[in-house]
Design the sequence.
């Protein structure tokens, strides 16, 4: 369990670094959220979850409508920013 949490923490750190880079490049939070939504769509369609955390995110994504998915994407950006 501890290993999975470390992996998830590394993923959040990685995502936070990418959000920070996007902000430094001049992207707005709205643009970053739109990109996060597009990435979420891609991952949901093309990538099989490798751990429990990814499975939970995919299951949530799959039951949401488009507007709810956009909210999830914005929340993931906030989560990433909280771990910068």
Sequence:
């Amino acid at each position: 369990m501890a290993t999975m949490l470390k992996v998830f923490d590394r993923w959040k750190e990685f995502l936070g670094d990418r959000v920070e880079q996007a902000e430094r490049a001049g992207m707005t939070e709205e643009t970053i959220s739109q990109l996060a939504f597009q990435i979420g769509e891609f991952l949901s369609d093309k990538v099989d979850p490798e751990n429990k955390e990814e499975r939970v995110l995919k299951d949530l994504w799959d039951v949401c409508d488009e507007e709810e998915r956009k909210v999830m994407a914005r929340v993931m950006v906030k989560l990433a920013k909280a771990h910068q």
Observations:
- The radius of gyration is 13 Å.
- The first helix runs from residue 2 to 24.
